[in-house]
Amino acid sequence: MLKSNAERKLKHLFDGGDWNVYEPNILKLGVGAPGTDIMAANCDNFRAATDHCLEREKRENQSLIFQYGPPSGTFEVRREISTYFTEMFQSPVNSEDLIITTGATQGFHLILSTMLDFEGFVFVDEYTFMVALDMIKHFSTLTIVPVKLNDDGVDLRDLEEQVFKRRFQSKKKEFWGIYYTIPTYHNPTGILFSPEVCRGIVQLARKYDFLVVCDDVYNILSYGEKPTRLMSYDVRTDADFGGHVISNGSFSKVLGPGVRLGWLELPPRLKPIIDGCGFANSSGCFNNYTSGIVGSLFELKLAQKQIAVAYEAYKERMLATTQVLRDELPACCKLVSPTGGYFIWVRIPDQLDCREFLKYCLENHKIYFIVGTRFSADGQSGKQFFRLSIAFYPKEKLVDGARRLCNALKDYIVKH
């Protein structure tokens, strides 16, 4: 048993581990984080926003930014967020529906903690965000139920079958079950759920009274026609509307993960649950100071400028990388070409194992990616898949890396 903690003096989340994208000797195509170049203007932008915010605090607001904030976050900040995303999504985002969080990770943890019966079920896509799986597993009495995923989103028939078999009446929490998904530019597959699938999810949620949690961190990274987000299908004027969908958003992919700022968008019957929970009653707004700075960042139009820079960089990287893969992947492999987001999902022949291919790539080509098994609930399914991320490296390095990866795969298939 350890009797003391070692001070590791790490500089970032990836420092000292297999995912260290700042390690120059290995091309790490696994990490879903913005590159250094994308965040290059942040120091100057945030300095300007901080000065703007704190001058007003001192002049007009009794420095209340340093006080416990209102549980949902200040109206001014929520108004800036709602205004921007209403225009971006081309559908209403109401400030009164928002709760400021420290990011989508905290948002999901809050939902699990406050809304789901601890003897309940979490339905997930058969491949899904691995950290979400890790979080759910910390709630050891919850049961994770994988659901089949098709090219246009979750398999509605399988979802209904799984839900029907497990539904019960919770006497402790608002919901007996949650369906967690990333419907817009899915992680890890890059899939965009079709309108028919989105409508079907909402209909099933209303029929069986389960909650749909949309991890919506990639919604604005659309490189073609803007999609309609799943939450928009839970229409409040419908006769059977009950409020079964939550959108969980974050600025981590576009302003920087170190900012630690996100938001939950909740229907009227669910927002009071978060506003009145112990977390909020104890701390008030979960990120009062930083949200104030980001509010000024939007007022000064610096946030919009930064998001546009990130968007153009990601778009260029995605289009260039997928083009190389379409041209040079072996014919026996399958590629999902996303129309947005961060990730590319590649399938190799079923008789091969991506875990072994990863070892081969590291030893012979110094390329790292994430194998499909990491995204499955059982940790074993998905050996024929791997995920690539276009977020961190410049286009030229991604193109070279994709080309080298294709050549490595061709060689590996010949040898095996």
What does this structure look like?
The protein is of the alpha/beta class and 416 residues long. The chain has two domains: 27-32 and 304-415, Aspartate Aminotransferase, domain 1, CATH 3.90.1150; 51-302, Aspartate Aminotransferase, domain 2, CATH 3.40.640. The chain is 39% helix and 15% strand. The protein has helices spanning 42-60, 75-89, 104-115, 130-138, 156-166, 195-208, 271-275, 278-283, 288-299, 302-328, 354-365, 395-415; strands at 27-28, 98-101, 116-125, 143-147, 149-150, 153-154, 175-181, 211-215, 245-250, 262-265, 334-336, 343-347, 367-368, 370-371, 385-389. The longest helix is centred in the C-terminal third of the chain and has 27 residues, at 302-328. The two termini are 43 Å apart. 44% of the residues are buried. The model has no long low-confidence stretch (mean pLDDT 95). Residues 26-404 form the Aminotransferase class I/classII large domain.
Key attributes of the depicted protein:
416 residues; Aspartate Aminotransferase, domain 1; 4-stranded antiparallel β-sheet; PyrdxlP-dep_Trfase; Aspartate Aminotransferase, domain 2; PyrdxlP-dep_Trfase_small; 15% strand; Aminotransferase_I/II_large; 15 strands; alpha/beta; single chain; 7-stranded mixed β-sheet
Helix-strand blueprint:
Elements: E1 27-28, H1 42-60, H2 75-89, E2 98-101, H3 104-115, E3 116-125, H4 130-138, E4 143-147, E5 149-150, E6 153-154, H5 156-166, E7 175-181, H6 195-208, E8 211-215, E9 245-250, E10 262-265, H7 271-275, H8 278-283, H9 288-299, H10 302-328, E11 334-336, E12 343-347, H11 354-365, E13 367-368, E14 370-371, E15 385-389, H12 395-415
Parallel strand pairs: 1-13, 3-4, 3-7, 7-8, 8-9
Antiparallel strand pairs: 2-10, 5-6, 9-10, 11-12, 12-15, 14-15
Helix pairs in contact: 1-9, 2-9, 3-4, 5-6, 10-12, 11-12
